[in-house]
Amino acid sequence: MDETGRVVVAAGRLPLRSRGPRWAHASLCVLDAVFSINAHYERHTVPTCHRYAAWAGMSVPLSASAQLPVPDEQPLQCFVAHIQRHGEAGFSSEILQNRQRTRAHRDAPLKAEAARRYAEILVSHGISTLADANALLADADRLAAVERDLSGVAGHGSGVRLAYLWMLLGDDGRIKPDRMVLRWLQTVLQRTVTPAEATGLLTAAAARLRCTPWELDHAIWEGRRKV
Fold this sequence. Notes:
The protein has helices at 3-11, 26-35, 41-56, 76-96, 111-124, 130-137, 140-150, 160-168, 179-189, 195-209, 213-225, and strands at residues 22-23, 62-63. The protein is mainly alpha-helical. It folds into two domains: 3-17 and 177-225, no CATH class; 22-168. It has a two-stranded antiparallel sheet. The longest helix is centred in the middle third of the chain and has 21 residues, at 76-96. The chain is globular, with a radius of gyration of 18 Å.
């Protein structure tokens, strides 16, 4: 049996579910993508997003895909303005109540700065809303240009954060090859797996399972976080 087959067999024991409610604002997708790296998701990242949503007056921070767009969808320009008005330090401590940095060093940029840069770059490429992001994801040339710019933001690493951003913005064809996914694959295959290999393996396995890569990625993530 090839490695994809072994992944398929192991994934067959996971509860594969369709995508549920998702962030209804591009700014919350940016915050989630940036603040989830090297952080406990439920304890830190989700509350950070909800604190900003409450402060910004978002009546519907989460929504089923069929109900998007929401009436009060916040343009990314507003998100950028909020950070600029308070400064990264003030925005982190007063609004987000999360002063995490892009890496474990006291002089590393705040994640709030990385989130601002992400949003500014997206806006510079004409991306303001979820609908704009979906149009971008369907245009390979534009997407490549945006990815080049976003890859220069502090904390880019192996590109996991960027792949996760596209997932959050609505691309069900991507995975987030983070530590949980890599450890699951290492257990299944009994070898070290790189993020690029993980992407290829899970995409191929999802095709055989007739599910989306997002559904397989999420099932692995749910299973690993309970270990």
